């Protein structure tokens, strides 16, 4: 247990290095755009700046949520008392939603930007949703999960884990006050982040790019179908196979 905790704690070191490298790399698209005089033209942008925000957030939460908050609970002497308290929940929220949640959103938006037309892309909406989701998650941690976890850990050391997980403690005034404070972060997370993103994705289905490749093949197939002679039949057969494969 102690050996595993040591290796788990050491993950903070490479995460710091990855964070520094990600921050340096995040400046590269802006530098190239300025040098090429893009002037904010969406059709000529280098990379995916809004999508990259979520990837930077992945690295931040990987360092803070998985690294720092994980470091707090990984040491054997701390884990012995805190295991099963809200400090574990605190680490789980930051690491799961912070890392994998932002990674999933980055993947969805990356695919969306390739599938929809440039005029349907909404950078301001996506940036608003990004900050709302991540600030909302931070507020949930610092207004509820972390202080409630510290309170619960203190109760474990004084009265035991059985009392810290009992209804008497959970329904107490202090713990319930922290729980109600989570509404602030949760509201920002949902109303400012989740709802606008869902609206954007659903609305963008009306602005999907047309599949010109299949349309050209179908057009050529119809033209070659009217050609007389053996050559026309040969071309017709090849196009028919290609059309059937794609459809």
Describe the protein.
- With 247 residues, this protein is mostly helical.
- It has two domains: 2-207, Cytochrome C Oxidase, Chain A (Up-down Bundle); 212-246.
- Helix content is 82%, strand content 0%.
- It has twelve helices and no strands.
- Helix 4 packs parallel to helix 7 (123-159) and helix 11 (212-225) packs antiparallel against helix 12.
- The radius of gyration is 26 Å and the shape is globular.
- The protein starts with a helix and ends with a helix.
- The relative contact order is 0.09.
Give a short overview.
The chain is mostly helical.
Secondary-structure-based class equals: mainly alpha
CATH topology of the largest domain: Cytochrome C Oxidase, Chain A
Shape: globular
What's the total helix number? Answer: 12
The Rg value, from CA coordinates, equals 26 Å
CATH architecture of the largest domain: Up-down Bundle
Strand tally is 0
CATH-wise, what's the superfamily of the largest domain?
Cytochrome c oxidase-like, subunit I domain
Round the mean pLDDT to the nearest integer and report it.
81
**Which regions contain 5 or more consecutive residues with pLDDT less than 50?**
229-235
Q: In percent terms, what proportion of residues is strand? A: under 5%
Span from first to last CA? Answer: 56 Å
Order of helices and strands: HHHHHHHHHHHH
Integer tally of domains: 2
- Helix percentage range: over 70%
């Amino acid at each position: 247990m102690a050996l595993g905790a040591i290796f788990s704690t050491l993950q903070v070191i490479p995460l710091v290095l990855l964070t520094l490298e990600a921050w340096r790399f995040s400046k590269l698209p802006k530098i190239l755009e300025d040098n090429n005089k893009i002037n904010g033209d969406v059709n000529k942008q280098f990379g995916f700046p809004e999508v990259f925000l979520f990837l930077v957030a992945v690295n931040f939460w990987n360092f803070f949520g998985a690294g720092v908050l994980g470091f707090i609970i990984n040491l054997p002497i701390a884990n012995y008392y805190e295991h099963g308290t809200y400090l574990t929940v605190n680490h789980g929220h930051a690491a799961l939603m912070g890392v994998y949640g932002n990674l999933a959103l980055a993947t969805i938006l990356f695919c969306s930007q390739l599938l929809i037309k440039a005029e349907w892309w909404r950078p301001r909406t996506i940036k608003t949703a990004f900050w709302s989701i991540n600030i909302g998650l931070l507020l949930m941690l610092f207004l509820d999960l972390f202080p409630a976890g510290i309170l619960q850990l203190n109760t474990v050391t004084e009265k035991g884990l059985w009392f810290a997980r009992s209804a008497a403690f959970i329904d107490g005034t202090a713990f319930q006050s922290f729980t109600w404070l989570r509404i602030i972060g949760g509201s920002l997370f949902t109303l400012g982040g989740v709802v606008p993103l869902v609206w954007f994705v659903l609305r963008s289905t009306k602005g999907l790019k047309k599949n010109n490749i299949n349309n050209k093949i179908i057009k050529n197939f119809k033209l070659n179908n009217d050609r007389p002679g053996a050559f026309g039949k040969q071309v017709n057969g090849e196009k028919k196979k290609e059309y059937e494969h794609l459809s």
